[in-house]
């Protein structure tokens, strides 16, 4: 930690670990905590981190000689909690002195380039099964299970298929529109009688569970900025889904009023 | 306090329990929850759902039931997170999904679309309250569970004016 170059490497390491965690969906309080842990473990006397959902600012060094760095996070669509767990685990092992700085860089690269934790076909299967199971929880039968599975799979696939340059809320809106449209048509054509269950199943893969959880945990930790930012993300996503449902109901399914 | 199910309802209850497990498990896979944790995440969702169901059958309001469900999710998640040494969000993300006020939200939209503004507002308020109750449950249980951890992680970092402990 005495040379300026060593200081640069510590700064790089902290930024890299933080970037990886935040990009894959960690809450900001945990990212700050990890950055401080990594910086301290690599011998920096002074570590300050300020993390928001869209950027990381840190300064690392000794008293009087500190380096500051920042990273802008542009997309958090590649949510992968497995990688969050791995980086978190790595930082704890680094803190216990089980890894050197060079090893840390190698491991972080490995985590970054690792293939998806679940194969893509299992992801599709999971989306379908989850949506189907929800239709039954919300009072549907096996017909709704089938419709819900197909529509949930469809909305999840639509969401994944769209390019990241499309704004997130628009993607959610279009995906929900596709899923709910198919669900409503299948009810209208008399295939099933429970519109409510089918529609809920269709939008389940789009529900903003992570934004909601992160916002609550950030607010709990006193991170007001990120907490409020994430809460509004969750609200806007929920609104995108609601508007899609309302649109389909008003155009397609007005005639299929089910009993209240 | 009696068991709020009759014998005839038990098979259907078991089916619903299985479904809440599958639903949570599937949703967790969409977020790439670590494989070692995924089975337990399903269990948390199941616990949340049965808590909500039993309390509603005991006459608790939908909002109160969502609050209790949130409490259960938070407590179980903190316990599993410590046992498996993983971040708590891994467990909470899946666990809260069975509590999502889906039918209430759907009815809100249906009322608005069919021109019943007032009923729509009432349902919308209900949806909002349920969502807030889930958050409240998570926050309260989470804060209590983390009381002993706080101290360890708030070691102050040395501050730039040279005072060693930042004070």
UniProtKB/TrEMBL annotation, chain B:
The keyword Lipid metabolism does not apply. GO terms for cellular component: plasma membrane. Keywords: Cell inner membrane, Cell membrane, Membrane, Transmembrane, Transmembrane helix. Its main location: membrane. It is a multi-pass membrane protein. The keyword Membrane applies. It is found in: Cell membrane. The chain crosses the membrane at residues 12-30, 58-76, 88-106, 126-145. Residues 17-143 form the Threonine/Serine exporter ThrE domain. One of its GO terms (biological process) is succinate transport. InterPro entries: ThrE_2, ThrE_Dicarb/AminoAcid_Exp. Belongs to the ThrE exporter (TC 2.A.79) family. This is Threonine/Serine exporter ThrE domain-containing protein.
């Amino acid at each position: 930690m005495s040379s300026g170059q060593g200081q640069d490497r510590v700064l790089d390491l902290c930024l890299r670990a933080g970037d990886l965690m935040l990009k894959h969906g960690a809450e900001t309080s945990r990212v700050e905590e990890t950055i401080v842990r990594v910086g301290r473990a690599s011998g920096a006397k002074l570590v300050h981190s300020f993390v928001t959902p869209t950027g990381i600012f840190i300064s690392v060094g000794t008293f009087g000689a500190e380096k500051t760095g920042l990273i802008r996070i542009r997309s958090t669509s590649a949510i992968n909690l497995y990688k969050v767990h791995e980086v978190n685990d790595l930082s704890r092992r680094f803190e216990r002195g089980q890894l050197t700085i060079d090893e840390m860089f190698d491991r972080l690269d490995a985590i970054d380039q690792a293939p998806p934790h679940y194969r893509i076909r299992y992801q599709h299967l999971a989306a379908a099964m989850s949506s189907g199971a929800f239709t039954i929880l919300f009072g549907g039968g096996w017909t709704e299970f089938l419709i819900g599975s197909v529509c949930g799979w469809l909305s999840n696939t639509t969401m994944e298929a769209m390019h990241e340059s499309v704004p997130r809320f628009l993607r959610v809106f279009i995906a929900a529109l596709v899923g709910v449209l198919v669900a409503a048509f299948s009810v209208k054509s008399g295939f099933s009688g429970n519109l409510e269950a089918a529609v809920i199943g269709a939008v389940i893969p789009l529900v903003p569970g992570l934004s909601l959880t992160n916002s609550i945990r950030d607010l709990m930790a006193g991170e007001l900025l990120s907490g409020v930012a994430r809460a509004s993300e969750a609200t806007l996503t929920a609104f995108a889904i609601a508007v899609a449902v309302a649109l389909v109901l008003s155009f397609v399914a007005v005639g299929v009023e089910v009993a209240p | 306090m009696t068991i709020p199910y009759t014998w005839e309802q038990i098979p259907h209850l078991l089916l619903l329990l299985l479904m809440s497990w599958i639903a949570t498990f599937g949703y967790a896979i969409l977020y790439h929850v670590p494989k070692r944790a995924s089975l337990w995440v399903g269990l948390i969702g199941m616990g949340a759902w049965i808590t909500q169901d039993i309390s509603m059958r005991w006459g608790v309001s939908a909002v109160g039931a969502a609050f209790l469900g949130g409490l259960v999710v938070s407590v179980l998640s903190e316990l599993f997170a410590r046992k498996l040494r993983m971040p708590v969000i891994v467990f909470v993300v899946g666990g809260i999904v069975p509590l999502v006020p889906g039918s209430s939200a759907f009815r809100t939209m249906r009322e608005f679309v069919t021109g019943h503004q007032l009923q729509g507002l009432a349902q919308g308020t209900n949806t909002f309250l349920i969502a807030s109750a889930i958050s409240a449950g998570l926050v309260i249980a989470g804060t209590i569970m983390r009381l002993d951890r706080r101290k360890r992680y708030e070691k102050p970092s040395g501050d730039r004016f040279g005072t060693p402990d930042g004070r």
